[in-house]
Design a protein that fits this description.
The protein is of the alpha/beta class. The protein contains 13 helices and twelve strands. The chain is about 45% helix and about 15% strand.
């Protein structure tokens, strides 16, 4: 038998071509008895729909776009992003989609590529990561009616689909742990404060200090940008304020901070206790091993794809908001026993 067609399956099942198409595309307007008969013929003949034809008929490209804005300068040096993209790629493979990466270096590029990608419908939907607050790309996506999902809490969450972790709670966990260990002068190196992730992790730090009646000292708060160099530099800037402990908003910055301590002839946790955020692979093998807030980075990537596919299939549904909890992983850098683990 030659290559089977929809018409041939329809003839064998005794139904119309459009009925076979509805069964294949899992649409509802088919009686159960007819659906079973078509599915039996498909199973018996080994028929496999042509994915290109299905996409053409449904006006879909089979491509999801990952948009990384110009604000993200360290995509290929920050270990966070490869893990995130691994999760996305795995979910795309599972659902027979292709993941396409769009990088913007300037505002002009962002406007050009956005118009070209969105107006020409080159992708079925878009995942956006690490946008700064009030980025015009969000309005462009909304206006174009392109299905999209943000990774991270948007500044106007009511109308946006997003997946994120509870960054306020995760940071609070870290600082509360340090307080319970007896530290009182607790510093922080935040993420960029033009992003919600930077703001939320700083807020968790502030909430913990306030709840335990500790003074918020501006001299103990420095802003980083999630790079190891910024962790090194901001740790150096904090040392004159003599912190007893520090919560750092990413593991990459925490590794830079540990290096700054060694450079100054100090060590963690003997001189300054250190807690990071992410639980990247390097955290377990740093010197000393890093206490950190674990977020499920790969799972975030998978969730972003799963939510986006749901948005594509059900455009009229309300915005999806998924927030995942974090876990405190206790190792040597904070001064507590590494065998202890506090769950979220």
């Amino acid at each position: 038998m030659g290559k089977l067609t929809l018409e041939e399956i329809a003839r064998l099942a005794g139904v119309s071509r459009s009925t076979v198409s509805r069964v294949i595309n899992q649409q509802d307007a088919v009686r159960d008895e007819v659906r079973r008969r078509v599915q039996e013929v498909i199973a018996e003949t080994g028929y496999f729909p042509d994915p290109a034809a299905r996409r053409l008929a449904g006006r879909r490209s089979g491509i999801l776009g990952l948009v990384v804005p110009r604000a993200v300068q360290f995509l290929f040096t920050d270990p966070y992003y490869p893990r995130l993209m691994q999760g996305m790629a795995q979910a795309c493979n599972t659902h027979d989609y292709i993941l396409s990466l769009f990088l913007f270096h300037t505002e002009e590029e962002e406007q050009k590529i956005s118009l070209r990608v969105l107006r020409n419908q080159l992708v079925d939907g878009v995942i956006v990561s690490a946008l700064p607050q009030h980025d015009p790309l969000v309005d462009q996506l909304v206006d174009s009616e392109t299905p999209f999902v943000m990774i991270g809490r948007p500044d106007n969450p009511e109308r946006i689909n997003f997946v994120t972790v509870d960054n306020v709670s995760g940071a609070y966990q870290a600082v509360e742990h340090l307080i319970r260990l007896g530290y009182r002068r607790i510093a922080t190196i935040t993420g960029p404060l033009n992003t919600t992730v930077g703001l939320d992790r700083r807020q968790g730090y502030l909430n913990a200090l306030n709840d335990y009646g500790l003074t918020v000292d501006p001299a103990l708060i420095r802003e980083g940008n999630f790079t190891e160099l910024s962790g090194f530099e901001q740790m150096q800037a904090l040392l004159p304020a003599q912190p007893e402990a520090i919560f750092i908003a990413s593991d990459t910055m925490a590794l830079g901070a540990l290096r700054a301590l060694r450079y100054a002839g100090l060590s963690a946790p003997a001189d300054v206790a250190v807690v990071g955020y992410d639980d990247l692979p390097a955290a377990a093998v740093s010197d000393p091993p890093l206490t950190t807030v674990k977020q499920p980075i790969r799972r975030l990537g998978e969730q972003a794809v799963e939510v986006l596919l749901d948005v594509i299939a059900n455009r009229s549904a309300p915005p999806r908001h998924i927030t995942t909890t974090t876990e405190l992983i206790i190792r040597e850098s904070c001064g507590a026993k590494p065998s202890v683990r506090t769950l979220s």
